[in-house]
Please model this.
Amino acid sequence: MRFRARHTVWLGALGVMLGVAALGSGTLTLPVTLTLLALFGAAMVASLFDFRPQQLRNTLTSSPLAMMKMTPQAREASDRARRRSSYLPPGLTLLDVGLITLQSGPEGTVMRRGRTISLDDKGVRPYITLSVGAEYADRKVVTRFEMIDHNGQTQYVHEMENYLRDGEVNILADTQLPLLGNDKLTSGEWDLRVSVDRAAVGILSFTTTPSITARNRMLMQDADEPRQRLRDEPEESEPVSLEELLRESQRRDRRQ
Model:
């Protein structure tokens, strides 16, 4: 709810007119006067205050306990989604959102959760954790995951159907985005976008770092640049010795 001061002028004029009509004229009965005052009060409240019932409903439908359980990344993602769209499903609270990567090591395949992924990882899967209220429970929904790279290109889209029960529900995408050897991917700041039944519930930024092969390639290019510049520069003649300069000077003097 926000205060809108730009409407105070015409409301003041309307109030003066209403006061003159109510006090200066004897034709208005008490019920009519009270009705006009009530209408004026309602108009004043509606004009001066910007009510946003959808945001109020979103706040009321999220239980305090669920909001306390929200991770920092869930709060960030929820705020970004709310700025993009005023509609959020009632009875749903995003508790957690992120990425799970698969890494190969001496111990075998290892799963890691975080907001930074490397293009040396085998693959990555998005996930969310929802708090489902009674008004949104016992129904099937379509969860949509999207990954957008730093160029605005959509690199991953996956939709899956889930049955929601009341309480906490973990949803992990059943497909992954291949990373290792995927030449279409570039490093930078990416976005993970999650929606439930076409309503945005979270938008989270994350970092994609280049692979070791790409880093080595960049290091080799940086090392080759000075050598290439030396090859491109014209070769200078060898410096003339002092003895040759003196002999040339003596030859000039004899000619003169």
Notes: DSSP finds seven helices and twelve strands in the chain.
